[in-house]
UniProtKB/TrEMBL annotation:
The gene is SRMS. This is Tyrosine-protein kinase. It comes from Mustela putorius furo (European domestic ferret). It is an enzyme of class 2 (transferase). Non-receptor tyrosine-protein kinase which phosphorylates DOK1 on tyrosine residues. Also phosphorylates KHDRBS1/SAM68 and VIM on tyrosine residues. Phosphorylation of KHDRBS1 is EGF-dependent. Phosphorylates OTUB1, promoting deubiquitination of RPTOR. Residues 122-213 form the SH2 domain.
Length: 493
């Protein structure tokens, strides 16, 4: 009797549902006011827990207009799910656009991959019932989390899995000629509209749909982060406020420089942020970062190895003292170029000096240690700790008030030029840090070194202007030094 009346008098379906209520979901949601017609049955105990075979997906290459009721009209770009093959046709369900099923000529189609960017975040195309239950009950999910997946027991249909406290309820979403439904009599043109309806009317299923399940992705391995075991420290090159610098081998073959950070002096909480900045800086006049070891202590910062060491030490060596004026000007130009790049990126060095410029076998100069001075603890790098702060290279506003800027770097560059043209001589020789700062505040400036051209010394004096705003930009310094180098180089060839 019931099937006959339901078939003949479909417009009274709401009345038949009250007389002959449909079975509730298998996992038992008691007292549903309007039970879910399509609750997905539990699989048999012998059913394997492996995910279902991924559906055969197709992309429509050419428009096709149905010629009879058994065929499905499709447009170029539509996505289809194949329910079965039928000779030269496939019987398919349309996934994009208005829902529908029917036969489509296989000559109009091309296979598509299951995962596409258009898949909504709540749809999992290769998810099994058991895996859905496991994910929704995991700590990463909360009550109200849900997802939609292909039905395991009815090919071409979907299943809605919803977490309700400590249980997961599964509901069948059936495909009909005019759309999709969770309960008979409530037809929707798309999954999006069906979910929107049951989010607003969750009492119909007694399972609130609060948020889609978001799969946990394993943390991506930072390509820069390497284990310390990959690096062998061979020879100590030097030591400073930041730590020790070693010559080492990476994986037993690649020569590198390894800076071993002194944790007692550094703000390690800020180090990771500074390392991120180092990773983003790439220029031929800056030391290139190769790797970091920041998990645990000591922290390693691994960079390219510059064989001739610091510019300060190289200039004082017999090889350095034999260099003529064009090569000295070339060093100045290279440092200005590197600092101009940092200036464009709004990076303040804070400790620019010849000791922090490294020289390679080809006499290429590269700026190093940019930004690390910012990480020194306040009691180490402050005016009250004159033994640590590099006062003789530091602009007055930075030495007195800790006001660092690109213009304070310009002051330091002027002192670096003095170092270059005195072959690594210490500036303000014979004066203590305190005396140096007093003399500078009274207007004293370093004298012109003997090999220094007058036009270059004029640039040095511009770098030492008392007002930071009056000091030139690095881009202007680079341009003027390059012009001086071009004029003077031919005379020395």
């Amino acid at each position: 009797m019931e099937p006959f009346l339901r078939r003949r008098l479909t417009f009274l379906s709401f009345f038949w549902d009250k007389i002959w209520p449909v079975a509730a979901p298998d996992d038992g949601v008691p007292g549903l006011p309007d039970p879910v017609a399509g609750a997905e049955p539990e699989p048999a105990a012998t059913e394997p827990c492996s995910p279902p075979a991924p559906p055969q997906l197709f992309r429509v290459l050419y428009d096709f207009t149905a010629r009879c009721s058994a065929e499905l009209s499709v447009s170029r770009g539509d996505r289809l799910c194949a329910l079965r093959e039928d000779g030269d046709y496939i019987f398919a369900r349309r996934l994009s656009g208005p829902p529908g099923t029917g036969l489509v000529p296989i000559t109009h189609l091309a296979r598509a991959t299951p995962e596409t960017p258009s898949d909504p975040p709540w749809y999992f195309s290769s998810m099994s019932r058991a895996r859905a239950q496991q994910l929704l009950l995991s700590p990463a999910s909360a009550p109200g989390a849900f997802l939609v997946r292909p039905s395991e027991s009815s090919r071409g249909d979907y299943s809605l899995s919803v977490r309700a406290q400590a249980k997961v309820h599964h509901y069948r979403i059936s495909t009909a000629a005019g759309g999709l439904y969770l309960q008979k009599g409530r037809l929707f043109p798309s999954l999006e509209e069906l979910l929107a309806y049951y989010k607003a009317n969750w009492k119909l299923t007694q399972s609130p749909l609060l948020q889609p399940h978001v799969p946990q992705r394993p943390p991506q391995q930072d390509e820069w982060e390497r284990p310390r075991s990959e690096f062998a420290l061979r020879r100590k090159l030097g030591e400073g406020c930041f730590g020790e610098v070693w010559e080492g081998l990476w994986l037993g073959s690649t020569p590198v420089a390894v800076k071993v950070i002194k944790s007692a002096y550094m703000k390690l909480a800020d180090l990771s942020k500074e390392i991120q900045t180092l990773k983003s800086l790439r220029h031929e006049r800056l030391i290139q970062l190769h790797a970091v070891c920041s998990a645990g202590q000591p922290v390693y910062i691994v960079t390219e190895l510059m064989r001739k060491g610091s510019l300060q030490a190289f200039l004082g060596s017999p090889e350095g003292r034999a260099l003529d004026l064009p090569l000295l000007l070339s060093f100045a130009c290279q440092v200005a170029e590197g600092m101009s790049y940092l200036e464009g990126r709004r990076i303040v060095h804070r400790d620019l000096a010849a000791r922090n410029v490294l020289v390679g076998d080809d006499l290429a100069c590269k700026v190093a240690d940019f930004g690390l001075a910012r990480l020194l603890k306040d009691d180490i790098y402050s005016p009250s700790s004159s033994s640590k702060i590099p006062v003789k290279w530091t602009a007055p506003e930075a030495a007195n008030y800790r006001i660092y800027s690109q213009k304070s770097d310009v002051w330091s560059f002027g002192v670096l030029l003095y170092e270059v043209f005195t072959y690594g001589q210490c500036p303000y020789e014979g004066l203590s840090n305190h005396e140096t700062l007093q003399q500078v505040m009274r207007g004293y400036r370093l004298p012109r070194p003997a090999p220094c051209p007058a036009e270059v010394y004029a640039l040095m004096l511009e770098c030492w202007k008392g007002s930071p705003e009056e000091r030139p930009a690095f881009a202007a310094l680079q341009e003027k030094l390059s012009a001086a180098h071009r004029r003077l180089a031919p005379a020395h060839t």
